[in-house]
């Protein structure tokens, strides 16, 4: 009888300790919130450019162009910047190459106002990479600290460049990264270095304290089939690096049991909206 009581007491103690640990974890974990906004609509009229071969020849696909606002007790953070505000127009713009038909629905000021934010509310700003559909309102973030891989910075704004990318010309508060970076130092918002699409491409991990953390792909993938088939766009900086990043990304997603959100996917935009409503 004494042995049974002893074992019961140990079991109660273990359960109590686990509950106590959970409470401590819940108390110490900062409250992080995430908003996703539409930085543009992109109709890809020649989908074949998103492959190294003829896989998508003759196909078209509708993309969204999301960007994200993350609120943390240590400051607000914006991820990506959509299309340029010159594209806030009623009629979509057919760009000269014939690949894209593009349009932005509204200005940054109006979109931030809809979720209770202003441009000056941001401590940090980062982009997955520096292509035109991710740098649209970047210069508005000039008062925030730009978190950018050093090699990506050198490719668009480095001192040795004769022609610098005007889309980031106003960003003077720069923190150059060399690899992964824990933005707030507590594991809730982590930039992961995943080169290949561009020389310094990066993705974003966000732990909102939900059932699963969120993993934003940047342009490592553009749509579901891209991810399934490990498709590499014809315009990527480095194919081998892209494939290696895909491998590392999938391993990390599995390790963290993360909800992968493909940023250009309208279906994933809707999926994340549903997650954030819970």
Question: Strand count, sense and closure of the main sheet?
Answer: 8 strands, mixed
The CATH superfamily of the largest domain is identified as Ribonuclease Z/Hydroxyacylglutathione hydrolase-like
Helix content: 25-40%
User: How many strand elements?
Assistant: 13
- Overall morphology: globular
**CATH topology grouping of the largest domain:** Metallo-beta-lactamase, Chain A
Fraction in beta strands = 15-25%
Look at the structure and give the CATH class of the largest domain: Alpha Beta
Secondary-structure element string:
HEEEEEHEEHEEEEEHHEH
CATH architecture of the largest domain: 4-Layer Sandwich
Q: Name the poorly predicted regions.
A: 4-26
What would you note in describing this structure?
With 278 residues, the chain is α/β, with parallel strands linked by helices. Helix content is 28%, strand content 24%. It has six helices and 13 strands. The protein has helices spanning 2-28, 108-113, 150-157, 224-229, 239-256, 266-277; strands at 33-44, 61-72, 75-79, 93-94, 100-103, 122-126, 145-149, 174-177, 181-182, 189-193, 202-206, 214-216, 259-261. The chain has an eight-stranded mixed β-sheet. A five-stranded mixed β-sheet has the order 9-10-11-12-13, with helices on one face. β10 (189-193) and β11 form a beta hairpin. It is globular. Mean pLDDT is 92; it is low at 4-26.
């Amino acid at each position: 009888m004494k042995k049974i009581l002893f074992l019961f007491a140990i079991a109660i103690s273990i359960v109590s300790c686990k509950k106590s640990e959970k409470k401590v974890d819940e108390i110490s974990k900062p409250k992080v919130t995430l908003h996703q906004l539409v930085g543009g609509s992109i109709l890809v009229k020649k989908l074949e450019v998103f492959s190294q071969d003829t896989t998508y020849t003759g196909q078209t696909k509708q993309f969204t162009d999301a960007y994200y606002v993350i609120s943390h007790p240590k400051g607000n953070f914006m991820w990506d910047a959509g299309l340029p505000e010159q594209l806030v127009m009623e009629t979509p713009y057919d760009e000269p190459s014939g690949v894209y038909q593009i349009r932005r629905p509204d200005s940054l000021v109006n979109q931030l106002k809809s979720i209770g934010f202003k441009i000056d509310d941001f401590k940090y700003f980062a982009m997955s990479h520096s292509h035109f559909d991710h740098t649209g309102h970047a210069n508005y973030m000039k008062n925030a600290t730009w978190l950018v891989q050093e090699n990506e910075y050198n490719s668009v704004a480095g001192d040795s460049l004769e022609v610098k990318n005007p889309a980031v010309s106003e960003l003077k508060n720069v923190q150059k990264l060399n690899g992964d970076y824990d933005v707030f130092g507590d594991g809730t918002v982590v930039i992961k270095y995943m080169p290949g699409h561009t020389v310094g491409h990066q993705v974003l991990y966000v732990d909102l304290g939900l059932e699963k953390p969120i993993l934003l792909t940047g342009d490592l993938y553009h749509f579901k089939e891209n991810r399934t088939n490990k498709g590499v766009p014809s315009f990527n900086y480095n194919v081998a690096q892209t494939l290696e990043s895909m491998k590392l990304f999938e391993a990390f997603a599995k390790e963290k049991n993360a909800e992968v959100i493909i940023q250009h996917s309208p279906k994933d935009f809707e999926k994340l909206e549903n997650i954030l409503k819970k």
